[in-house]
C-alpha cells in the first residue's frame, strides 16, 4: 500500500505507544464515518486514540473508545464523545482483517487519524500482535543504542 506523503496530510491524533506495545505487521488506511460536529472537532486537533481499538460489530468494522471532544460552538447539536464510529473499507479488506483478528489472535490498533490531501478524515490501522515484556525491553534497548550511536557520530564526526 502507498504510504501517505507527510507534507500532504495533517495529523489530527496520534497513538505513539502503539508501536511500543504492539508488533505491527501490516498497516491499512480506512475512512471513518463522522457526524458534522465530529469533523469540526477533529480539525481542532484535540482528539485522542491512545486507548482506542478497532473491532467487528456484526459484519462491519468499528472504531471503539476513540475520544473526540465536543465541538464548543455546536451547543445542543453536539455528538457523543466516545461513540463507536464506523470504519469505511471494502468488503474484501474487512473480511481479511476480521479473519486475522479471529483466527490468528491479532489486534487492530489505530495508529493515527489524519486528513488526506482532499480533506477527508482517515484512520491508519495497524494489524499486529501484542509484545511481551522482554520484547518491550529489547525495543527500548535498541532505541537507546541508536540514540547513543547518533550522539557519538555527531560528536566524533
UniProtKB/TrEMBL annotation:
Q: Do you know which SUPFAM superfamilies this protein is assigned to?
A: Small protein B (SmpB) (SSF74982)
| Highest taxon of the lineage | Bacteria
InterPro entries hit by this protein: SmpB, SsrA-bd_prot, SsrA-bd_prot_CS
Task: Report if keyword Endoplasmic reticulum is assigned.
Answer: no
Extract the ranges annotated as region (Disordered).
Answer: 130-157
Q: Where is the composition biased (Basic and acidic residues)?
A: 135-151
Q: From which residue to which does the signal peptide run?
A: none
Q: Supply the alphabetized keyword list.
A: Cytoplasm, RNA-binding
**Intracellular or extracellular location(s):** Cytoplasm
Which Gene3D superfamilies does UniProt cross-reference here? 2.40.280.10
Report TM segments.
none
Described purpose of this protein according to its UniProt entry: Required for rescue of stalled ribosomes mediated by trans-translation. Binds to transfer-messenger RNA (tmRNA), required for stable association of tmRNA with ribosomes. tmRNA and SmpB together mimic tRNA shape, replacing the anticodon stem-loop with SmpB. tmRNA is encoded by the ssrA gene; the 2 termini fold to resemble tRNA(Ala) and it encodes a 'tag peptide', a short internal open reading frame. During trans-translation Ala-aminoacylated tmRNA acts like a tRNA, entering the A-site of stalled ribosomes, displacing the stalled mRNA.
Q: Which family does it belong to?
A: Belongs to the SmpB family.
PANTHER family per the record? SSRA-BINDING PROTEIN (PTHR30308:SF2), TMRNA-BINDING COMPONENT OF TRANS-TRANSLATION TAGGING COMPLEX (PTHR30308)
Which NCBIfam families does the record match to this protein? PRK05422.1, smpB
Name the record gives this protein:
SsrA-binding protein
From which organism does this entry originate? Answer: Bosea robiniae
Amino acid at each position: 500500500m502507498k504510504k501517505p506523503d507527510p507534507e500532504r496530510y495533517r495529523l489530527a491524533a496520534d497513538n505513539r505507544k502503539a508501536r511500543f506495545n504492539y508488533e505491527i505487521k501490516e498497516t491499512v488506511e480506512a475512512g471513518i464515518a463522522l457526524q458534522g460536529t465530529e469533523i469540526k472537532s477533529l480539525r481542532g486537533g484535540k482528539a485522542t486514540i491512545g486507548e482506542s481499538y478497532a473491532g467487528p460489530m456484526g459484519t462491519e468494522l468499528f472504531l471503539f473508545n476513540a475520544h473526540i471532544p465536543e465541538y464548543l460552538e455546536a451547543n445542543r447539536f453536539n455528538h457523543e464523545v466516545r461513540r463507536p464510529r464506523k470504519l469505511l473499507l471494502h468488503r474484501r479488506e474487512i473480511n481479511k482483517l476480521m479473519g486475522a483478528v479471529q483466527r490468528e489472535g491479532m489486534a487492530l490498533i489505530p495508529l493515527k487519524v489524519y486528513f488526506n490531501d482532499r480533506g477527508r478524515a482517515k484512520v491508519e490501522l495497524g494489524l499486529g500482535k501484542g509484545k511481551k515484556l522482554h520484547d518491550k525491553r529489547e525495543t527500548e534497548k535498541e532505541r537507546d543504542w541508536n540514540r547513543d550511536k547518533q550522539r557519538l557520530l555527531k560528536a566524533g564526526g
